[in-house]
Amino acid sequence: MTRLNHKHTTLEAAIAAIPDGASIMVGGFGTPGTPCALLDELLAQGQKRLTLIKNDANEPDIGIGPLIRAGRVERLITSHIGLNRVAIEEMNQGRLAVEIHPQGLLAEKIRCAGAGHYGFLTDIGLGTEIGEGRREIDCDGRTWAIEPAIRADFALVHADLADTYGNLVYRGTAINFNPLMAMAADRVIAQAYRVEAPGRLAPASIHTPCAFVSQVVQIAPAADRPGDHAHAV
Amino acid sequence: MPSDQQHILARAAKEVAAGQIVNLGIGLPTRLFHYLPPDMEVLVHSENGVLGCQPLEGDAEPDLEMIDSGGAYIGTRPGASVFDSALSFAMIRRSRVDVTFMGAFEVDQQGNLANWKIPGKFSPGIGGAMELAQKVRRLVVLCSHNDKHGNAKILRQCRLPLTARHCISTIITEKAVMNVTEAGLEVVDIAEGLDVASLRAATEAELIIDEHRLGRF
């Protein structure tokens, strides 16, 4: 066994590495790309006082919804929680701290951590309430806000395909925040519908190279996840 | 007799030109797709990470990993691409999206937009609205002219927290089409059967109206 080929593991073992109080990035925009099997295991194992970083709060019974409902999440860093009435209620009751960032800034803050930078300069949100409280700097005659990067202890990501080295391929709009988060956390746990032997995935098709990925877990095909609110227009 | 929303959408479709990249906001603007000519060569961007999405055909089996930012299952047209969230917003911030359509709680005659928060009542987060409003080349607001209590939504100065400043190009309501100009809010079209005095009475903002050039819609 080498560092490269011991990554293929079980749901239980992968999630057991997460302690109480951990900060965890969670992929997904709505249901697609949400690592539901990893989150269900996290719910079953009982870790608490978690800080989650996720684009949205899913819906009450999907993804991070049950963790919020069970009071296991102390803080949520996100862009929008409008589809999860339980999360809104927990926030309004003061039981869940919610930190809202504009979606593109949230993505870029995560991308920036993954690229090894402190942060970036932007003109997004200058002069608005949501942009208040940021440090500003003048460069080349214009004012910019400083946006520090966001990292985390763990990232839970959903891929379509993986290999046992940890190379990942995403599919469709399930890609969203996953490749960004897979570079921005100290330890990255990926779920995938298939985990192949090295060499089975075409090198040019790989979105996240294995260097960033700590563990891969094979999961059953989804298909029957309940409660999708998604609908045809 | 079309409903107010149908009236707004039919007029809004004229703001899209062939060859454009278009973003449709959640809610009413998403339905604009059905008002565009079926053969029009337009790429619809959805900020969750797709360029070239289109509604699913009636009985098509949905792909569970293909949605738009409103959560609807989507298909794609020839020339479509999918990408991650950072790239999707790079496309927005670099103004590669030609026009975006959004709803509003309030707008004002400076072209300011408020559509994400009503303090104490509604604050689920801002999503992608801020960057879309600030950086897409043209922002067209589609909204009712007044709220459900009859209060003005087209104001002299927004009262709610802003999504972005000086960002709106055009406002389309069931009563009027208004362009934001240096001089203020200029009415270009007024609804069939509505007179100028009634329009002014329903509007808090000052309106610039040249009755000789006024269109009907």
UniProtKB/TrEMBL annotation, chain A:
Keyword Phosphoprotein among UniProt keywords: no
Gene Ontology terms, MF aspect: acetate CoA-transferase activity; butyrate-acetoacetate CoA-transferase activity
Family named by the database record: Belongs to the 3-oxoacid CoA-transferase subunit A family.
SMART domains with a match to the protein in the record: CoA_trans (SM00882)
Source organism: Halomonas organivorans
PANTHER family from the UniProt entry: ACETATE COA-TRANSFERASE SUBUNIT ALPHA (PTHR13707:SF60), KETOACID-COENZYME A TRANSFERASE (PTHR13707)
Protein name, UniProt field: Acetate CoA/acetoacetate CoA-transferase alpha subunit
Keywords from the UniProt entry: Transferase
Automatic annotation (TrEMBL), chain B:
Source organism: Halomonas organivorans
NCBIfam families xrefs: pcaJ_scoB_fam
Name of the protein in its database record: 3-oxoacid CoA-transferase B subunit
An annotated Gene Ontology molecular function: CoA-transferase activity
A Pfam entry, by short name: CoA_trans
SUPFAM superfamilies in UniProt: NagB/RpiA/CoA transferase-like (SSF100950)
InterPro entries: 3-oxoacid_CoA-transf_B, CoA_trans_fam_I, NagB/RpiA_transferase-like
Domain of life assignment: Bacteria
Family indicated by similarity: Belongs to the 3-oxoacid CoA-transferase subunit B family.
Keyword field: Transferase
